[in-house]
Amino acid sequence: MASERFESNFRRTILVVLGLPLVALIVMPLLGLLTRSSPAALWGAMLSPAVLQALILTIATTGIVVLCTILAGTPLAILMSTRTKEFHWARTLIDIPAVLPPAVAGIALLSLFGRFGLLGQQLAPYGVFIPFTTAAVILAQLFVAAPLYIRACMIAFDRLDPLLADAARIDGATQWQYWTQVVWPIARHGLQAGIALTSARALGEFGATALFAGNMPGRTRTMALAIYVAADTNPEAATAMSILLLAIALVLLGITNRGSATDTSF
Predict the structure, then answer these.
(1) Hey, where are the domains in the chain?
(2) Cβ distance 255 to 194 under 8 Å?
(3) Which of 34, 42, 88, 152 is the most buried (most CB within 10 A)?
C-alpha cells in the first residue's frame, strides 16, 4: 500500500515538474500584461474615442456573427450529426477554416468577394463591393469562427441516443417537446460552449480581417487591429484594450469550461 502511494506521488511529481514550465510560459505574460499600467491610466485610455470606436464595432460585428452562426450553424450541425455517413466529407470541409492560417483565410475571401473574385465580378455591375467594408469584417469573423460552434454542436448532438426519439414518439411527444425537453437539456452545455468559443474567436480575429476588410477607423478597425496600431503610437491604449479582451476571453472560457465540466463528452 505504501509503495503504491509512493509510486503515485512520484508520478504526480514528475508530471508537475514537466508541465510547470509550460504553465509558467502561459501565465507569466498575462501577469505581466495585468501589471503593466495603473487602473486609472487604463481607464483613461479605455475612454478614448478610438478605443470606444473599436470596442463598439467589435461587439456589434461579433454579435451579428454569433447570431448568424446559431441560426445557420445549428440546423447544419443537426443535419451532419444525424447523417454522419452521407456528410463525413462536409465535416472535414467545415473544420478547414478553423485551422487555416489567418492570412490564407483573408486571401481566400478576397479571391471570392474581391473586385476580380469569383463572386465579386458578379456583384460589381450592381455596385456591390464587399471588401474593406464592415460587412467584410463580419464575413471574415464568420468564416473563421463559425466552424467552432458547428463542431461543438455536432459533438453535443452525436451523444444523443437515437432511441430517445423513438421513446419520445411512443410517449406521444411532439417534435417541439422532443427538442425542448429531451435534446436541449442534454446538448445545451455543448451549444453554450460553442457559442463561447465562437465569440472569443470572432473577438480576436486579426489576420483575415486585416487582409479582407482593411484597417479603417470606425469602419473596419476592430479591437485586435486597434491594438496592433496602438502598440507603437499609444501603448497605454493598447494595454487597456488587451486587458479588456483578456477579461472577455476569461469570461467566455469560464462558460466553456463550465459546460465541459458538466458535459464530460465535450
Answers:
(1) 1-35, 41-262
(2) no
(3) 152
The pLDDT tens digits of the residues spanning 217-242 come to 989 999 999 999 888 888 888 888 88
pTM confidence score? 0.83
Q: Which helix (H) or strand (E) holds 99?
A: helix 88-99
Q: Is the pLDDT higher at 253 or at 195?
A: 195
- Separation of alpha carbons 193 and 186, rounded Å: 13
Estimate to the nearest angstrom the gap between the alpha carbon of 192 and the chain centroid. Answer: 12
Which pLDDT score, from 0 to 100, does residue 67 have?
96
pLDDT in tens, 33-81: 888 777 777 777 778 888 889 989 999 999 999 999 999 999 888 888 7
The contacts of residue 77 (CB under 8 Å, 6+ apart) are 149, 150, 153, 154, 157
Q: How many CA atoms lie within 13 A of 48 on its CB side?
A: 19
**Sequence letter at residue 171:** D
CATH superfamily for domain 41-262: MetI-like (1.10.3720.10)
